[in-house]
Amino acid sequence: MFRTEVKIESSPQKIGYEDAILSLGSCFSENIGNKLSEAYFSSDVNPFGVLFNPVSIKNSLDTLLSEKTLSETDLFQHGSIWKAFTHSSLFAGTSKENVLKNINERLISSAQKLKRTKVILITFGTAWVYEYLKTSEVVANCHKLPAGEFVRKRLCVDDIVSDYIALFHKIRTLSPDIHVIMTVSPIRHWKDGAHENNISKSVLLLAIEKLQKLFPFVSYFPAYEIQMDELRDYRFYASDMCHPSPEAVDYIWKRFCETYFTHKTNHLRLKLENLNQQLNHKPLFPDTIEHSYFLYQIEKQKTELKKEYPFLEGRL
């Protein structure tokens, strides 16, 4: 067998379809978060958009826990576009009112969901942060402003651990049954250079290891190690040679399912993923009797699934 397999013990803390899940962090958190959504889990994926560094992820959770919303003073205009340093460009727009409305509607919704959340999936992307010189605050996104307006610095392990000790105590107080899964994104930040990228990832890995030892409800899923050590071939990378390919994401998702789902959960997941594939099927001849029967069969599947699993009501 021409590969080295990353061994992962089955987690004693399982994720079920009854559990609400919040996924926060880098592009990889969206990969897994979207897989959860496609399988009809109750999943809230990156309510701030993609976040790369631990400070911004921590700040976003603090915002949700305190149920804060943004005001007009939290926005800035760059050219014709209104943006917020706390959010990705996904929330940017030409209308200040609409940008603020979209951001706050999502904040309110996610803060309410967090009260019911049983699992938080946090994916660190990089230990490098950018401080905005005018405010000395770490930004989640520089939004293509001139580099001279920021100071770039690398976090140390103790910086991250100190921040998250306070955060996890707060989360645990509000949600005693919470389970936090931490990962390091397998996506290389190549613009930092190969050596600097490796140092950055090492800082993140060491910080998570310390947090694991301090908090029994924190676990680590080795997405980074699977990509680096098990899926070494370049066929497992996208065309930029840095992001995982769809095949790699599918494989890491499979390992995630094996680690955190029971046999019963996986059985239902496969049924629902199959249903999702059918729903995404684009017919060549939508006006035919055959397609009408196909749609009837799908609705019948939905009805039977909701009858057998009442918690799917509202998801299907």
Task: Produce the secondary structure layout.
Elements: E1 20-25, H1 27-38, E2 42-45, H2 54-65, E3 75-78, E4 81-84, H3 96-114, E5 117-124, E6 128-132, E7 137-138, E8 150-154, H4 157-174, E9 179-184, H5 194-214, E10 218-220, H6 223-230, H7 246-260, H8 263-279, H9 289-308
Parallel strand pairs: 1-2, 1-5, 5-9, 9-10
Antiparallel strand pairs: 3-4, 6-7, 6-8
Helix pairs in contact: 2-4, 4-5
Describe the structure.
This protein is of the alpha/beta class. The protein folds into 2 domains: 241 residues, Rossmann fold (3-Layer(aba) Sandwich), CATH 3.40.50; 56 residues, no CATH class. 45% of the residues lie in helices and 15% in strands. It has 9 helices and 10 strands. Strands 2-1-5-9-10 form a 5-stranded parallel beta sheet, with helices on both faces. A 3-stranded antiparallel beta sheet has the order 7-6-8, with no helix packed on it. A two-stranded antiparallel sheet has the order 3-4. Strand 3 and strand 4 form a beta hairpin. It is globular, with a radius of gyration of 21 Å.
- Structural class by helix and strand composition: alpha/beta
Any idea how many domains? Answer: 2
Fraction in helix: 40-55%
The coarse overall form would be: globular
Radius of gyration: 21 Å
Give the rounded overall mean pLDDT.
Answer: 95
CATH class category label of the largest domain: Alpha Beta
Could you give a short account of the major beta sheet?
A: 5 strands, parallel
Estimate what percentage of residues fall within beta strands: 5-15%
End-to-end separation: 41 Å
Which spans have pLDDT < 50 for at least 5 consecutive residues? Answer: none
The number of helices is 9
The CATH architecture of the largest domain is 3-Layer(aba) Sandwich
CATH topology of the largest domain, anyone?
A: Rossmann fold
